[in-house]
What we know:
With 70 residues, the protein is mainly beta. The chain is 13% helix and 39% strand.
Amino acid sequence: MLSAVNVGKAYGDKTLFENLTINIVDGQRIALIGPNGSGKTTFMDILAGETAPDVGSVSRKRGVSIGYLT
Length: 70
């Protein structure tokens, strides 16, 4: 299980997203769809632990691995 609660990220004046909450259960697959520059890759980086959110928290069940194509 992976959970992100009230996650937000901004770069300078540009807020990519805020108050984003998602719960993903074992075996579930997700797709992120949106225009270029909307923060999809940044959000995936946050879920994978590569980037820290400005606000909010992300927790992963022990042993969970996240794979995605950058």
